[in-house]
Design a protein that fits this description.
- This protein is of the alpha+beta class.
- Among the domains are: about 150 residues, Calcium-transporting ATPase, cytoplasmic transduction domain A (Distorted Sandwich); about 160 residues, HAD superfamily/HAD-like (Rossmann fold, 3-Layer(aba) Sandwich), CATH 3.40.50; about 180 residues, Calcium-transporting ATPase, cytoplasmic domain N (3-Layer(aba) Sandwich).
- It has 32 helices and 26 strands.
- Strands 10, 11, 14, 15, 16, 17, 18, 19 and 20 form a nine-stranded mixed beta sheet that branches.
- A hairpin with a 2-residue loop joins strand 17 and strand 18.
- Helix 3 packs across helix 5, helix 10 packs parallel to helix 26 and helix 13 crosses helix 14.
- The longest helix is centred in the last third of the chain and has 43 residues.
- It is elongated.
- The two termini are about 60 Å apart.
- It is a multi-pass membrane protein.
- Pfam families: Cation_ATPase, Cation_ATPase_N, E1-E2_ATPase.
- One of its GO terms (molecular function) is P-type sodium:potassium-exchanging transporter activity.
Length: about 850
Amino acid sequence: MKDWYNYSWSEVVRELNSNITYGLSMENVNQNREAFGDNKTLNLKSKSFIILFLRQLTKLYSISSILTSVLLFMALKIQMGIFMIIINLFCVTIYSLKNYKNENKLIYLRKITPDKALVIRDGSSISINADELVVGDIVYLEEGDIVPADVRLIECNNLRIKESAITGDNNIVEKYETKIEDSEISHSEMRNMAFRSSFVIEGTAKAIVVEVGENTQIGHIIKELIKDKAKKSSLEDKIVKLINSFSTIFIISFIGILIYSFLEKVNIIVNFKIIALAYLIMVPIQVIIIIMLISFIIYSKTKRKGINLGGLSYMETLSSTDVFIANKIGSITEERVFVKKIYTNGNILEARMEENQEDKHNIDRIISIGVLCNDSRLDVEGKIKKGDFIDRALVLYGKENSINKNILEQEQERILQLPFDYERKIKTTLNKVEDKYRANSIGSVDKLIERCTHIMKNGIEVEMTPQDIINIKRADLLLAKESLHVLGFAYRNFNYEPSINENIESNLVFVGLMGFENPCKENVINYMEYCRSLAIKPIIITDDNKITAQSIGESLKILNKNDMVLSGVEIDNMDDDELEKFVEKVGIYSRISSKIKSRICYQFKKLGYKVAVTGSRFTDLPSFKVSNIGIATGFNCTNIAKELGDIYVEDNDFKGILDLIKESRQFLKGIKNIILFNLIITLIEFISVVSSSILNNTITIGFKEIVLTNFVTVIITSFMIYSETKNIEGKSYEKVNIDKTIFHKFSSGIMFYIIFVAISCIGIYNFNKDINISLANISIFTILNLSLILFGFYFIKYKNVFKNKIASMLLVLNIMLYILFVQIFTGNCIEIFKEMFVNSKIIIGIILVQIPLINFIKELDDNSK
């Protein structure tokens, strides 16, 4: 952006070929649109649900399902064909809805962009769509407006704007039209500029548009958000990819069976049935349903805890966290501060001790400065309804010392305000005191004393000496070493009303320092040990100075032996290569901007770390997008951060988020076990049923039996496995990946079990088929169902099932449903059981031998890890 703030408004108007009275002509509008572009900042076009739905239908698993449904209809299995269509539509719809939600996530940004703008064109004031603005347009602003573009102010009438979307500062900024001489200033210091998506709180203005569209400051931010919109991998997509690999095998088998049928002139309808059966067995589409149901359970459970998950994929990403970056206040300290100590008259005093008369005048002046240079608001009952933690602490301390903010502000009316910003590190208000004026300033000690020429001693202003400066810095150091957040207090009297463009913050009178204590939460040291036990590097961001940060870091064990504290000022003078050398050695960052926060996240990612970062403001969004996962936190979190963050945690608690990371890792282990279980069952069914069907040239088990096995028994057993997620053994620092490495879990023991069950099914069918074909079918169904129920214990300890009420209930439900299914299929389950066990006593042996076999395989696999 050109430094428009360094130009007078008349120079800006002249350079952009505009006119403050007549505005732009339509010819100029078209020329400027061609030269500078239009004002369409938000390229937020999202795909419609229909497009996403159709795209999902083209996935291999969906095509296979549709193909199977067609074959079932051709084989006159109408009910099963309809069932397959319903299952496919359910899976496709669920995935389409998830993708549609992600596609439309950034649409929330439209809420901070205006629809209309009032401009002057061809000498007339007209209302146009904000997207139609061009550089050089003369616009009007008034109370309640959202600034429609980046503008240079021409005329202001008590204009006050909130620019939190751009600067991250929640303070209301007073604006003026005068040229600014300083160069290389921050956005918050550009008082003669207003930026798109800022809110006009009070007053009116006329301004000229200097930047539009993606060239606006908000445009730059949004462009980065859009660019990184699809950066995070999806757990659901990985599962679909896994299922698609089985669909590929199915399609190859489908083609092979068709060729075999053609060459051998086999009954094509019989082979259609075998192909359809092969799909039901080979493609574990039930996994999608299981994951979606678990997703709903997880979402409901975390919602009750005040956690809003964007999706299971974010839990997967969270589980792989190596670096956790959090703000100090709220995460490891309480969300409150209070005045602990005061320095004035050369003495450090306890804030709540009986002060002597010599100090009283100075202390009262410090309190008055703190109460007046303060953005908190009190209701009629005197309760604080607004303001940051420092502002609240100052008001409460004033109240304790009989200085009421509302009364004092009535006596000393505020005329204007210079809000705090990252560069100046000072905030100032100008108040009217009787018939004179006083500037009240609060800020960083180093920055403040640079602007002071005098000091108040015993209520009298005297010239500041070098020794005074040494004493002040020494006191600052002592307070900082006590882990106190230190601020300086100063003022300046005027016999006249200074204008906002005067250097009000000069020739100040230093009064004293205040040390604020931010109480730590209990067991913070344990939190740090807990964090490192999860193999996560904790990094804290604080607004304290470097010395205070060092003291806090050492006392709370945030800093390891070789860790260091790095300040924003130091990082400002580093390029990315220099920062990369330091980033792994830093445990605490002191007084950094949102831009630096993004740079830190980027450097960690560049080094291969998985980064989780917390934030609560719009300006934290770039950090969210640069990191692997962005966590919006706190009750005071802005709505836009909640919407665009990956996860929202209501209680900004360091341990709470670490618990969530640990639970995510346990959850991923549970999901991996469920997927592994389903794949093992798929192989058992494929080898036993498909092979025996091909060998016997007939369907050896009914479609309904397979559907009930896969979509009832398997799903219930999967939930039984999931119910034991918290009891899964393993090291807390172990990270879980769900990818093709899952096949590495197919140990020799598991493969032996698969072959054992498959051979049992084939053998029992051939043993019974000549006696009673229905008995043979039910025998396979029995072995498959009871085997997969028993194999669930590979992932669960037998003793835990009876301790876990949910697992016990699911186990009993599975067995009861098996009996019910047999009754439905045969019409007389008692008789069929008698016949099955009389004629096939071996079934009992097959089932019973699996109990010690599964336990042996589990112990063997556990010992081989």
